[in-house]
What does this fold into?
Amino acid sequence: MTQTNVDISDIIAKWKPVKGSLVMMLHAIQGKCGYIPREKAMEVSEKTGIPLSKIYEVLTFYHFFKLTPPPQYQINVCTGTACYLKGAPEILAELNKLIGIKEGETTKDGKYAIAGLRCLGCCGLAPVISINGKIYGQVKASQVKGILEGLDKGEKPA
Ligand code: FES
It folds into this structure.
């Protein structure tokens, strides 16, 4: 879920009385919203008295927390040694050609994001990509277009 209009008052009410529970509270909010919208951070600050600067200190310290909405499709391309040697650069180039972004970028409409990862732990399937957690093995650059079209046709990746 990636809604910003979700009610987080129950989460705040649950964790507010527990000393040192800011991380747990933010964790639960991200679980409900998909990320930590600024207005939710402000709501936490208002209702708990914790300064907004302290909340952002925590949010930026832990890489787990996301401050922007997650993309519709998170495409991870393994760039570990086996995948690199078997075609990861060509897959990245094809993705760049087809959706116009590079590794580490997100499309303006928030539909796709591409990240490079170091070894997804299934080197025997190299080269490997994952989309929203679903693994695609032995991917050829020529198959990337079909994979993306499958997503648009509602073939859910996860
Ligand atoms: S190097 Fe890609 S899965 Fe291991």
Remarks:
- The helical segments are 9-15, 22-33, 38-48, 52-61, 81-85, 88-99, 144-152.
- The pocket of FE2/S2 (inorganic) cluster is lined by residues 78, 80-83, 119-123, 126, 128 (CB under 6 Å).
- Residues 128 and 137 are 5 Å apart (CA to CA).
